[in-house]
Amino acid sequence: MRRLIISFFVVLALFLAVIFEPAVSLAIKVTPSPVPTVEPTSTPVTVPDLTQKTPQTLGPLEALLNKQKLGSVWSNPVKYAIRGAVSSGVPANTIVLLLLLPISAFVIAVARNIIGIRGFGIFLPAALSVVFVAIGPVVGILLFLLIVAISTFVRLTLRKLKVKLLYLPRMALILWAVVVGVLAVLFSAPLIKSASLTNVSIFAVLILILLAEDFIRVQLGKSVKTAISLTSETLIIALVSYIFLTLKPLQNFVLLKPEITLLGTGILDVVLAKYSGLRLMEIWRFRKLINNS
Fold this sequence. Notes:
Elements: H1 2-19, H2 21-27, H3 55-67, H4 77-87, H5 92-115, H6 123-135, H7 137-160, H8 167-187, H9 189-192, H10 195-198, H11 202-221, H12 224-245, H13 248-256, H14 258-273, H15 280-285, H16 287-292
């Protein structure tokens, strides 16, 4: 129990140290000369968020659509549908994300069926990759570690105090503690001065809480080692999927070639479903037995 409490505060300290670093560096900065100097102001470079309807996100995508020459409606029905949807007000970034999600799911399926990386299903890593697109992988992982630390701390504290609760009321109490912890971080936003953290949406927090719930469920049903292993592999798969979601050439391709994207991804899914051989991690695990046979 003592080690758990120490680990909890270590994770919390690391989390606060990372996000408070800009504020601390700004506070300790001392000007070497008392003579006031006028420095040119520079606007910070921000990465366009594909999940948000902003001019930085929509502008390049809509300009790309306007430059595209449409062929026959019979050979390019999805292109015409996309053009009509965008002209009626549907955000182009939403269409791009929807076209990228099947590719993300295929990447996750390859990681599981070919490589052998496990995880919590396929939908949770895909949703987690979208969370990383929205708030960034660093802030996302730190928030997740904070949520897992709080939930594990509350669960083990209840067990140490021998407080017997049913499963759902206990999970509701853990959710209450997680919400208090996340609110404490968000309430300190004026001091944090991190755009990725201050713009955290309820969607991102809910996905991270779902992952934490699966972590606790596996921890209760199996073991802490299994829960940590599955959670770590889920984060790895989500990070790989996040890389594919943020590739600018891939975003442009799926927007300009939606028919090829949808048809090609479906065919690749069917081909992958036919694979029944050993996974790469299994080959590495049983390499001595395979070499001796």
